[in-house]
Amino acid sequence: MTSWNVGKTVGVAPPRATMTRLSRGATIGNPGDNAQQRRVIAATLALLAHPAPLALVMLDEK
């Protein structure tokens, strides 16, 4: 899971999740920024290689 809203994500308690500082509607990357979208998706999918549950992972994407 990837999200921009820490409060809601903590309440859901997913086994693995990434967080971004991107705005609502651009959770996986800014419109038209394919490189950023791929970075976010790749980082989120990489969490599957680790046993769950994991602490939330904050990505440095703005």
What does this structure look like?
α1 links the parallel β1 and β2 (18-19). The protein has helices at 6-12, 34-46; strands spanning 2-3, 18-19, 57-58. The chain starts with a strand and ends with a strand. The radius of gyration is 11 Å and the shape is flat. The model has no long low-confidence stretch (mean pLDDT 96). 32% of the residues lie in helices and 10% in strands. The protein is of the alpha/beta class and 62 residues long. A three-stranded parallel β-sheet has the order 1-2-3, with helices on one face.
Q: How is this structure best summarized?
A:
The protein has helices spanning 6-12, 34-46; strands at residues 2-3, 18-19, 57-58. With 62 residues, the protein is of the alpha/beta class.
Q: Major sheet: order of its strands?
A: 1-2-3
Number of helices: 2
Order of helices and strands: EHEHE
Q: How many distinct beta strands?
A: 3
Q: Judging from the principal axes of the Cα atoms, what is the shape?
A: flat
The radius of gyration computed from the alpha-carbon positions, rounded to a whole number of angstroms, is 11 Å
* Low-pLDDT windows of residues: none
Structural class: alpha/beta
Strand content: 5-15%
Indicate the mean pLDDT.
96
The separation of the N and C termini measures 18 Å
Keywords:
flat; 3 strands; 3-stranded parallel beta sheet; alpha/beta; 62 residues; single chain
